[in-house]
Amino acid sequence: MGTPSPRAVLVLAVVLVGLWAPRGGYGQPNFIVILADDVGWGDLGANWAETKETPHLDQLAAEGTRFVDFHSAASTCSPSRASLLTGRLGVRNGVTHNFAITSVGGLPLNETTLAEVLQEAGYSTGAIGKWHLGHHGRHHPNSRGFDYYFGIPYSHDMGCTDTPGYNLPPCPPCPRHGTAARVARKDCYTEVALPLFENVTIVQQPVALGSLATRYAEEAARFIRRASENGRPFFLYLALAHMHVPLWDPQPAPDSGSDIYGASLSEMDALVGRIKQAADSHGKGNTLLWFTGDNGPWAQKCELAGRLGPFVGAWQRQRGGSSAKQTTWEGGHRVPAVVYWPGHVPAKRTSRALLSTLDIFPTLVALAGAALPPNRRFDGLDVSPVLFGWSDERHKVLLHPNSGAAGKVGEIEALRLAQYKAFYTTGGAMACDGSTGPAEHHQPPLIFNLDRDIQEQEPLDVASREYQAVLPMISRAYAQALEDIAADNVSVADYSKDPAAIPCCNAQHVACRCHGAPAATLDFHTERRTTRLCL
C-alpha cells in the first residue's frame, strides 16, 4: 500500500477535526459537570446489575460512554472538589482535608479554578449545590469564577434543620427556643441551622431538605435557559447533596422498613434525568455532560451508605475498618463516570481507560479552546481523544492520597501503575461496626494485581517473579512523582477557624433562623459580614 499524499493527509485531518470540533453559538461547547456525593461505583445500574434505581443514569450511559476505571482525586469532600476544579492533587493545591463551618480560609486564592479559566474564555459559569471549598470572604464561589451560585456552602450534615432526615446516629431538629431547648449530640450540629445561599445572600436558614433536589433542578434548568438565551456557552457545576447523609425519602412509605437509600438514589437519578432533558432542549449535541462522584460510600453509615460493587478492599476488611470513603482502597476512590455528548462521544461504549476527576479540568479547558494556567504543574490530562473513542491513552501512573483513614492527610500513600496498585501505607476508616483499621506502613510496598484481584484480597508474594519484576517500575514512578511535586509551585491552604466565619442569617434568633427577616448578605470586599451575620 502506497504512502498517502500530503494533500490526502490534510483532507483527513480536516475531516477528523470537523467530527469533534466544538459546536455552539461561539464555536465552544457547553459543559455540565454533575458531581454526586458519597456515591458508590455500584450505585449505577449500568455498573452493577443489582442496582435498579437508576434508569435515567443507565440511559445516559447507553447514549454516551461509561468509564469503569475512573477515580476521584481524593476520597473525601474538600480535597476531591479542590482537585476537580484545579486539576491538581491536594499536595499541590493545598487542600488536604475538609473545611469546617468556622473555617476562615478555603481553596488558596493563588490557585486558578476551572470556572475562572472558562469565564475568561467567554463562558457563563454557574455552581449549584455543595461547595465546601471555603465560604468566608473571597473563598465564596462568586469570587472563584462562578457568575451564579445557589446552594449550601458545605456538607448538608454540617448544620441542623427542622426535618433532619435519616442519619446514623439520628440528629435532632434545630432548636426553636432558648438555650435550654438545645440538645448536644455527638456527630450532630445542633447550634447553627444549615444555610442556603443564592450568590452571596442567605435565602433560607434552616434549609428545607425535602425540597432541595427540586430547587436544585429548577435552578439548574433556569441557568441553562438563561445562558442559552444570552447566546453564550455555559459551564454548570452541579454538586449534588445526594448520596451524602442525611438522606430523605421523597415519598415515604407507611412501612418503616422502606429502603431509604434506594428512594434517595431514585430521587438523584430523576434529578439527573431532568438536567439532561434541560440540556437537550437547548440544542442537543451542543452540551457535554459529565457525571461522576467525589468519593466512595461512607461505610460507617451502615444501611445509609452506598454500594461498592466488587471493590470491597478485602485485605483491609479482614483487619478491621472500612475500605471505602477516606481510604486509598478502590472502594474509596473508584467512582461511576459517564460522559454524554451526542455526535461527539460514542454511545453504548464502555471504556477501561485509567482516568480521574483530575482530567476534567484540562479536558474542558482544551475543548473550550482556552489555555492552562502557567507556572504550575497538573496531575490531570486532556483525555478528549479517549472521550471521542479515538484512543485508550490513559494515565500511566495515578496517585492516591490519604484522605483521613491512616497516616498524614494528603500524603501519597498508594500508587497505580497499569494493572498494579502499590500501598506504602494502609488503614481503614470507621466501619459500620465501629472498628477502624490501624495504620500500617509497608516497605517494600504491598502490591496487588487488579486484573486478577479486583477485591484487593491477596497482595503479590514479595518473592514472586511478578513482584520482583514490577517493584523497580513502581519505585521509580513513586520517586519521580514525589520529586515532581517537590519541584512544583505548591500552595498552602489556611485551615484556621473563627466562629465569626459561620454563615448566620440572624444572630439574634436561635440557630440563626431567618424568620422571614431580610436575608443576610456577605461582603467580599472587606472579607467581613454585615451586622446581620454572626460576629
UniProtKB/TrEMBL annotation:
Main location per the UniProt record:
other
Recorded hits in InterPro entries, A to Z, give: Alkaline_phosphatase_core_sf, Sulfatase, Sulfatase_CS, Sulfatase_N
Q: Which domain of life is it from?
A: Eukaryota
Q: Which CDD domains match?
A: ARSG
Which residue range or ranges hold the Sulfatase N-terminal domain? 29-370
Protein localization: Lysosome
Under Enzyme Commission nomenclature, its number is: 3.1.6.1, 3.1.6.15
- Which cofactors does the annotated protein need, by name? Ca(2+)
Keyword vocabulary terms for this entry? Calcium, Disulfide bond, Glycoprotein, Hydrolase, Lysosome, Metal-binding, Signal
Query: Which GO cellular component does the record give, naming just one?
Result: lysosome
Q: Reaction catalysed?
A: Hydrolysis of the 3-sulfate groups of the N-sulfo-D-glucosamine 3-O-sulfate units of heparin; an aryl sulfate + H2O = a phenol + sulfate + H(+)
- Specify one Pfam family: Sulfatase_C
List the signal peptide residues: 1-27
Q: Which GO terms describe its molecular function?
A: arylsulfatase activity; metal ion binding; N-sulfoglucosamine-3-sulfatase activity
* Family, per entry: Belongs to the sulfatase family.
In its UniProt entry, what is this protein called?
Answer: Arylsulfatase G
What lineage does UniProt assign to this protein's organism?
Answer: Eukaryota, Metazoa, Chordata, Craniata, Vertebrata
Q: Which gene encodes it?
A: Arsg
